[in-house]
Amino acid sequence: MNLRAFVFFGLLVTVAVIFTLFPQVDQSVSAEFYRSGGGFFLYENPVIRAIHDAVPIFAVGTGIALLMIFARAGWTRRTVAGLSWRAAAYLLAVLIIAPGLLVNSVLKDHWGRARPSQTVEFGGKKVFTPALVISDQCDRNCSFVCGHAAMAFIALGWRRQKDAADALVACALRNPLDVTEGLQIVDSLREMFAGEDRNLGLEALIAQHSSTVIRVAANRALTDGSFKRSNPTSPC
User: Fold this and answer.
1) Spatial distance between the Cα atoms of 114 and 104, rounded to a whole number of angstroms
2) Cβ distance 19 to 131 under 8 Å?
């Protein structure tokens, strides 16, 4: 587990522990947005409503766009909008599995936690339940977890890949005589999202690798993305 993953996991556990041991924190935050007799005052704010209503449209549009990119890139074997067919397939899977199936179909419809507006504390008739406790206060489209916020999960697919690119280049340079391994690494770099990290990795191979075959393959991948192999999985 790298440092970034360790920090992320640590923060996740910390937040989970806080909201489990001190559930009143949840209610206190909700109370800041509630006015007696008027409900949650931001609910009818036009800007908030516009953002809220736009997220499902964004989700569908993103899914259609990724499907089109996947088909086009797979047919031409070239990147489309900076994405290879594998990258588009990955992002499409993230969209379907995380916000689509896990959040909206599994957790929100089966966790049973009432929304704040449904609880007694905020004018409703349901009993408040801490976030990590399964309840029977809601039948479907419940409060745990937030479906709109889950859409941000797809942004993980667009993270910078400098560490991965650097590791692949280092692997290729450590084993300059293994041309097969070097070609696999070039293909792995080519399949990354188009951007500075991928390009710098390919440029490093062009400038530093001792094999002419690897340098030519890296140059082709950098200039037109035409290099391809049947097995792109990197050995490193």
Assistant:
1) 15
2) yes
- Residue/partner pairs of 87-90 with CB below 8 Å, 24 or more apart: 87/157, 87/191, 87/192, 87/193, 90/157
Alpha-helical segments (H) within the chain: 3-21, 24-31, 46-76, 85-95, 108-110, 147-150, 162-174, 179-190, 196-208, 212-223
3-class DSSP state of 106:
helix
Span 125-161, pLDDT tens digits: 999 988 888 889 988 888 878 888 888 777 665 554 5
pLDDT single digits (tens) 52-100: 899 889 889 989 999 999 999 888 877 777 677 877 888 888 888 888 8
Residues 211 and 195: beta-carbon distance below 8 Å: no
Strand-pair partners of 40: 34
Tokens of 186: 């070039």
Q: Which amino acid is at 109?
A: D
Q: Find the Cα–Cα–Cα–Cα dihedral 83, 84, 87, 88, rounded to 10°.
A: 70
Q: Residue 107 corresponds to which amino acid?
A: L
Cβ pair 178, 186 in contact under 8 A = no
